[in-house]
Amino acid sequence: MNALTRFFFCLGFLFFSFSSLKSQQVEWNQINSNSVLDLAILQAADNNHTSYSNILQIGDSNNIEAMINAKTNIMIQQLGDYNSLYFNNSFSDTKTKNVINTQGNNNIIDITGSNSVSENMKINVKGDNMTIFMRNY
Q1: pLDDT of 2-14, one tens digit each?
Q2: Is residue 23 predicted with pLDDT exceeding 50?
Q3: CB crowding 28-41: b at 16 or more within 10 Å, else e
Q4: Among candidates 4, 97, 83, 7, which has minimal Cα distance to 47?
Q5: What local confidence, expressed as pLDDT, does residue 81 receive?
Q6: Which UniProt keywords apply (predicted)?
Q7: DSSP letter string over 38-74?
Q8: Which of 17, 25, 91, 108 is the most buried if burial means most Cβ atoms within 10 Å?
């Protein structure tokens, strides 16, 4: 599957994965490659009381294991091959809003726990063969 085909497949999956009424009120002719990310942000901003996850993976053999509590809002993007993300804050009642972007190959991000320091954390990893271990207690 070439990169362009994967991109449009993921874009379509991203759009159809939304379950909010606001995103369902958009006309089909308003949806294009320029507006789909705005729709995702609109969906995320409208959802203040429950957890949501937006996950986009483009590449081969990527892995995400997310065990989150009911107050976690997380947006994950993995571009490249053989990337892994382990995110676990299921034993905490902390409200968390995180954005994690990985661009490259063979990267590992392992995050356990949540606290006030990691509440609105944004992680951007660009490169190959990088590892991040984060423990929040």
Answers
A1: 666 666 555 555 5
A2: no
A3: eeeeeeeeeeebbe
A4: 97
A5: 95
A6: Signal
A7: HHHHHHHHT--SS-EEEEEEESSS-EEEEE--TTEEE
A8: 108
Q: Length of the chain in residues, anyone? A: 137
Q: Cα–chain-centroid distance for residue 111? A: 14
What amino acid occupies position 72? T
CA distance 43 to 47: 7
Tokens in use for 108? 């590992």
The type of residue at 8 is: F
In angstroms, the Cα distances linking 129 to 4, 87, 125 are: 25, 19, 10
β-bridge partners, 131: 108
Query: In this model, does residue 103 exceed pLDDT 90?
Result: yes
Rounded to whole angstroms, the Cα distance separating 72 from 98 reads: 8
Beta strands of 1-137 (E only): which ranges? 52-58, 63-67, 72-79, 84-88, 96-103, 108-112, 122-126, 131-135
Count the alpha carbons within 13 Å of 51 in the hemisphere toward its beta carbon: 16
